[in-house]
């Protein structure tokens, strides 16, 4: 589980509730069901209008990615590719066929299999980058959903504000109606801002991070696969792949590979 996402949502909710309580009015004044229906229900309905139903129903799948920490094992991937390169240089590309079944990642397995099968380098490159493009397009759907919803939530908060003001102005002779109308006007704006800035925009940013991490993993695999197919020196491949890593991790990775 992604502790940062869970902790962030928990702390954000706690701080907002504490500020409401310390404001002296109690939590009850901030609870307004019509405002919830206007902001959450209205903005979600707008998302359904602007997207295919299958995409909207998949929003729970994208949300689950936010709370799961992927383990792409970049160091293990680099080590595997360097080992493949060394073996291919010693025994030939066909020798890699014995190790393919041990590869867990389907993308890497398919790439190495194409190398063993003697597929043309340009075809391998085209297939792998097409696969990467499809991955990015799938990720972009979830990112766009969160981004669109984040932009719509405050807008429906403003619609609720206008609704409350209209209700208030149409009943100026009734003090109770004025109070409820003003409450609806202000609380819907607050709900829209909280939903967008504490939930949806952070969710979008986290999905973008997930996309960058997986894309980096795939780019390392592509570089390794093409280098093995081209017969590059394993030491050169080692430096190529390690250069993708964060500078802090490069030194330890080089030491680990040198110790093998």
Can you give a write-up of this model?
The protein is mainly alpha-helical and 260 residues long. The protein has 2 domains: 1-30; 32-260, no CATH class. Helices cover 80% and strands 0% of the residues. The chain has helices at 3-22, 33-50, 53-57, 59-67, 74-91, 106-116, 121-169, 175-230, 234-242, 247-258. Helix 4 (59-67) crosses helix 8 and helix 6 packs parallel to helix 8. The protein is elongated. The protein starts with a helix and ends with a helix. The mean pLDDT is 85.
Distance between the termini: 32 Å
Largest sheet: none
Beta strands, count: 0
What's the Cα radius of gyration?
Answer: 26 Å
The helix tally amounts to 10
Dominant shape? elongated
Strand percentage lies at under 5%
Order of helices and strands: HHHHHHHHHH
Which structural category do the helix and sheet elements fall into?
mainly alpha
Number of domains: 2
What is the share of helical residues? over 70%
Q: On the 0-100 scale, what is the average pLDDT?
A: 85
Spans where pLDDT lies below 50 across 5 or more residues: none
Outline of this structure?
The chain has 260 residues and is mainly alpha-helical. The chain has helices spanning 3-22, 33-50, 53-57, 59-67, 74-91, 106-116, 121-169, 175-230, 234-242, 247-258.
List the helices and strands and how they pair.
Layout: H1 3-22, H2 33-50, H3 53-57, H4 59-67, H5 74-91, H6 106-116, H7 121-169, H8 175-230, H9 234-242, H10 247-258
Helix pairs in contact: 2-7, 2-8, 4-8, 5-8, 5-9, 6-7, 6-8, 7-8, 8-9
């Amino acid at each position: 589980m992604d502790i940062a996402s869970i902790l962030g949502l928990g702390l954000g909710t706690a701080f907002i509730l504490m500020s409401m309580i310390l404001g002296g009015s109690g939590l009850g004044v901030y609870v307004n069901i019509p405002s919830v229906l206007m902001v959450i229900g209205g903005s979600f309905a707008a998302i359904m209008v602007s997207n295919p139903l299958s995409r909207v129903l998949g929003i729970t799948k994208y949300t689950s990615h936010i709370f799961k920490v992927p383990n792409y094992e970049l160091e293990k991937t680099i080590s595997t590719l360097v080992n493949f390169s060394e073996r291919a240089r010693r025994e030939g590309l066909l020798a890699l066929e014995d190790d393919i079944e041990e590869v867990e990642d389907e993308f890497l397995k398919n790439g190495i299999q194409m190398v063993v099968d003697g597929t043309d380098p340009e075809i391998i490159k085209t297939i792998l980058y097409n696969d990467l493009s499809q991955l990015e397009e799938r990720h972009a759907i979830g990112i766009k959903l969160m981004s669109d919803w984040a932009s719509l939530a405050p807008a429906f908060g403003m619609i609720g504000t206008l609704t409350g003001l209209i209700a208030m102005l149409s009943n100026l002779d009734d003090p109770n109606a004025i109070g409820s109308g003003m409450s609806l006007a202000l609380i819907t704006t607050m709900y829209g801002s909280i939903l967008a800035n504490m939930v949806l925009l952070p969710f979008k940013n986290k999905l973008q991070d997930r996309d960058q991490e997986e894309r980096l993993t795939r780019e390392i695999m592509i570089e390794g696969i093409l280098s093995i197919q081209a017969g590059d020196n394993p030491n050169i491949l080692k430096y190529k792949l390690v250069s993708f890593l964060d500078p802090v991790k490069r030194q330890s990775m080089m030491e680990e590979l040198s110790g093998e």
